[in-house]
Amino acid sequence: MMGSCLQCGANVAPDNRFCGVCGAAQPTAATVREPSFAASDASSREGASGSNASEGDAAPNGSDSIAQQSPFNISTVNQHESVAELPTSTVDQSALGGGRGGAQNGPQSGAATEHANSTGGRRGANKPLDEGTLLDNRYEIVRRIGGGGMGAVYLAKDRNLGDAPRAVKEMIQTQLDEGQQEKAASDFKRESMLLASLEHPSIPTIYDYFDESASRFYLVMKYISGGDFLARLRNAPGHRLDEKTVTGWALQIADVLHYLHNLPTPIIYRDLKPANLMIDGTTGRVMLIDFGIARWVTPQEKGVTAVGTMGYAPPELFSGKVEPRSDIYSLGATMFQLLTGTDPQDNPLLVFDWAKNSRPRQITPAISTEMERILMRTVEYKPEDRFRSAAETRTVLAEHLEKLRAGQISYGAVAADRLGFQTMATEMVYCGFCGQRIAASDLYCAHCGKQQPLAEGSAALRQARATAKLVVSGTTEL
Fold this sequence. Notes:
Elements: E1 3-4, E2 11-12, H1 36-46, H2 66-69, H3 93-96, E3 134-135, E4 139-148, E5 151-158, E6 164-172, H4 178-196, E7 206-211, E8 216-222, H5 229-235, H6 243-261, E9 267-268, E10 277-279, E11 286-288, E12 295-296, H7 324-340, H8 360-363, H9 369-378, H10 390-406, H11 416-419, E13 428-430, E14 437-439, H12 459-473
Antiparallel strand pairs: 1-2, 3-4, 4-5, 5-6, 6-8, 7-8, 9-12, 10-11, 13-14
Helix pairs in contact: 6-7, 6-10, 7-9, 9-10
């Protein structure tokens, strides 16, 4: 059962120690009491169509952003809903009353909601829209399907187009002075124009944007009925997904990144993660949502503000540097979580330090050797050691998907490509610590993580022994 943050009202999982939206520390699950409007939202989600899987599974799993855990005081809204996300302003959290120590005290009761009529008008801060509210004399609110302390996401009907379903994202900028309000409006229009200018099947269509007042902004976009990747992961057996599915999804993500990176003025997404990726329930296609911190990047630009999510953000973002290969790192981190079920946010600084942490196959032996190499290269510490571009990543993933379909993959011979030979088969042995079957060439058990006796020798000896075992197993090329 989901709880609500007492600071901003966002959904919080029972085992989350901090709110994923505002970063506020949470009391124990037993002491959290949901506001009345959140309870009504939950009941409305339960009655929703089964295709809208992510509406009832929209709570984040501790998605603390870099802005909340580093000296960079940048506002980001981490929504996890089954709709495309609203671009987010980069106004300081302190000015918004959000984040730690903010002045906002969470959402008000639905019974006390005051909403604007069809001609507009100001409403109380953070009060949700009522069912039937008409925005811009066109969009009729059906129900609230998500949101947090800085706004909400609603399912609406477009009266001008036969009640076609639309996602309406409301962004609220409260407690701003005149200058900050102007900046918020400017940021909102800039991000809306950015989204409206993009044409790719994996980017949601933007239909309209408008403001109700100086502090309330609305973005109208395609309603996506499928769930986000986090919801898929939570519902998957063992909380991990199969390699063929993940490879197919990653291939589509690499394609949309290639599109963004090769625009006349390249766009770096900067916040790629499972919560910002969805499956369109109608087409089955991967959709990239929440362009709130995506940014046009010119070749001469320096000192770009670091924004992203801990665990998925590459090291260079901490120093204010961003480039296309930053998105490749985030793609690798996302694939790693989908394949292993391990959340990079649990150990954001060292999760991909393979000398101190388990390799992907040690966590999930079902991952192929080829996929492990792909994962390890995408999350290399230095950008120059990763794939050179999204196009190269896309090519590698496409080739791997074909091998998966043809059954031309191997397991266990991690060092084979480094030694210059190809592996046709790998001898299987048993770990002396846990008794599970592992590849003879593995230096660590993929099940218990214990170092195997083979690893006690020198590097040259390890290579020689691995080679001998591979020869016995049927390798015909050395």
